[in-house]
Amino acid sequence: MFDHFSSEVIKSALLVIALIAVRIISAQAVRRVMGKLDFGLQRKRLTLKVINIILLLIALTILLGIWGLKGVDLFLFTSSVVTVIGVAFFAQWSMLSNLSAGLILFFNHPLKIGDYIEIKDNDLSVIGRVDDITVFFIHIITTDDEHVTVPNNVILQKTVSYKKTPIAKKNKLKETA
After folding, report:
1. Would you say the pTM of this structure is higher than 0.70?
2. Hey, how many other C-beta atoms are within 10 angstroms of the C-beta on 19?
3. CA–CA separation, 16 vs 10, rounded Å?
4. Residues in contact with 16: Cβ distance below 8 Å, sequence separation at least 6, in sequence order
């Protein structure tokens, strides 16, 4: 039986070795780049998770091809999965925009965990410290010690000021004597 599948077993083993090597190289690259940009540990972990998921999906697709799934069937399977995911994201358009905004925040926005921010908008006013940045939301602890989650796309769409030290809360009501 091993003789019949020896080629597939060897190719699968090589794929696993290649996957491990690519994961190690990509992890080192992410750590090096994010270290230079002074991103936090949480951001590094989430970036590595996304990269690992993408690498595993690619490896799974290659593995299915190694074990005899024909090119047409593999293409049909992959396109079906992508279609289902696309329909799900289209049905939840805000989730897709938050996910893409989260990726933009991770890689191109100078906002970091621990920074103090003020989101400036007519209908939304949040002042506080960034507690966590996730794929879909930014968690903020306000000056009133409330925990607020703000969708990532709001951070990209609204005017946001940020700095390393606390932002003073502005009194909107004037006191009368």
Report:
1. no
2. 18
3. 10
4. 59
Which stretch, 56-60, 61-65, 69-73, 92-96, has highest mean pLDDT?
56-60
Beta-carbon count within 10 A of 163 CB:
10
pLDDT class of 91 with cuts at 50, 70, 90: low
Identify the sign of the CA torsion 157, 162, 166, 167: negative
CA proximity to 115, closest of 146, 48, 159, 160 = 160
> 23 phi and psi, to 5 degrees?
-65, -40
**Residue among 36, 46, 174, 38 nearest 99 (CA):** 46
- Tokens 């190289």 map to which residue? 25
Residues contacting residue 87 through CB under 8 Å, at least 6 positions apart: none
